[in-house]
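[agent] plan:
  1. take the single chain provided in the ticket
  2. run structure prediction with default settings
  3. attach structure tokens to the ticket
  4. add a short note for the reviewer (M.T.)
[agent] executing step 1
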Amino acid sequence: MPDSAHAPASGWFEDRAFFFPLRVYYEDTDFSGIVYHANYLRFMERGRSEFLRATEISHQAMLALDEKLVWAVRRMRIDYRKPARVEEALTIRTRVIEVTAARMRLAQEVRRETEILVAAEVEPASLRLTDGLAACPMRCVKYCFPISKPNIPNTATKEENMRKLTMASITALCLAASSAFSLSDKPYITVADVDFPGLLPPPPTESSMAGKLDLQAILDMQKTMNPAREAAIQRDLPQDVYTIAGSVFGPGFTKEKFPLTGAFIDKVVKDGGVGVGPIKQKYKKLRPFQFSKDVKSAANVATATGPTYPSGHSSTAFEVALVLGMMVPEKRDALYERGWEYTLNRVASGAAYPSDAEGGHIAASLAIAGMLKNPEFRTDFESVKAELRKGLGLPS
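[agent] step 2 finished; step 3 output follows
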């Protein structure tokens, strides 16, 4: 029995892209020693298969589901740029561009070191063996979003750097006094900073295939509703950082001990609302429990009667994961997992569709990317990071 040291190469993630290494063999080439054009399709298929294995939605995992799903390529566009030759070491880079209810759109590249030899856009669809399109597992959606720690540009003025150092020192020496620090009264982002209407895709209409799959995903989740899930839905109704990150940071993560963190995240969510509120009003999409009598929601969930797309709960969850994950990279993966749990509880409650959650995640990423360019945000970020790491007993 071979041990793991002799297992086939399976690739790795880097900056939300998946890389799979391979070598060109004689059988891959034509008479001139150049890779035959059709074999690049095989190379990219291997890269996709290993990506699916790494994200726990492999072909075998899909077939093991009760409804037995499969991945099938629906569409592919390919651009041949340069040839690969026998015995060269190549890397297949696979990155998710988009995930909808029943398909993924992937960008794939065959690379020789950093040189791109072949580029392709591939659209795998999730199918039932019996009757066509089916909703793909929700866990694949998270690979649309960046996981690498963003670099905060070092564009601060000398005065801003002095302020950061001063505030970090004060916070470290006297955590109890951190609430005395005043966050910037200027918005971290405005409607002019990010083109939310242009970058956020429209939600699927209820009558479309994607819309029907959206609704079916909720109904399927509610079929397995139990007291534990009902309790989790109620627990996750509050839309604040202590509810979202408390299970990651522990019972000591409270407003009393981390006042600046709470105030900062509240401001991030409020200012990020410039990208969520107008989109909600643009589409005015009914919530699932409003659209379908088959969707069941608790009375206190059904009080949310405003437009559903994009999901405010989901955008808040991922703004928390993005920001706190940069401050505490040791807990970053756990924060994202908690963000997904919080999001899925909102979907299961009947107050949001999976596509609403996807829109909320995209809105969160756009908002935080815009805020990172703002010196006021970066200065406040450093002060809050000092409070958070100190309070959690982590090195500064």
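[agent] step 4 note for reviewer: Confidence is low (pLDDT under 50) at residues 1-5, 138-159, 161-180.
[agent] ticket updated
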